Amino acid sequence: MPRAGLTPDRLVAAAADLADEAGFERVTLSALARRFGVKDASLYTHIRNLKDLRTRMALLAGGEMIDRIAAAVEGREAGRDTLAAFAGAYRAYALEHPGRYAATQIPVDQDLLTGSPAMRRTADITYGMLRAYGLEEPDLTDAVRLLRSTFHGYCALESNGAFGAPRDVQASWERAIDALHALLLNWPREERNPDA
């Protein structure tokens, strides 16, 4: 019989909180069970295993993150204004919720991503922002990968205190957004062979 008060949603939310407090890698079924004052076995009524829990955390955090990004970009003028709002919301979430953010970086089964409304919304917002720069496939996917790599790398270095130069970190961030905007405006187009 399921323990009163335990639900998959409560467990995943508690695991996400634990990840923010202690670190994503420290989220274990035992640690989560201790948080609720139950035995590990009590959790298996609601989640299959640690991989299932972490996947659910990734989907929860991805949904929270895109909600924040969507609110930030709503009503913005296409181009740098939207790019800066998108990037700023991404960075704020990553720095404020390090454990949740780490969950968004794990590999998740493609079928789960395809079936997730939050992940579809993420694609719609991200690709919509980039289409405003006149990009089409395969350039869209390449640009998404560039932005994600830049945002993730910057956030990872910043959160670890790895920017040691006296230059203000926010000023460097703003310049990075300027550079990305300029690059997207002048994206190097692949030569298309019309006879191919």
From TrEMBL:
Keywords: DNA-binding, Transcription, Transcription regulation. Pfam families: TetR_C_33, TetR_N. Residues 28-47 bind DNA. Gene3D superfamilies: Homeodomain-like, Tetracycline Repressor, domain 2. Residues 5-65 form the HTH tetR-type domain. InterPro entries: Homeodomain-like_sf, HTH_TetR, MT1864/Rv1816-like_C, Tet_transcr_reg_TetR-rel_C_sf. The keyword Lyase does not apply. This is WHG domain-containing protein.
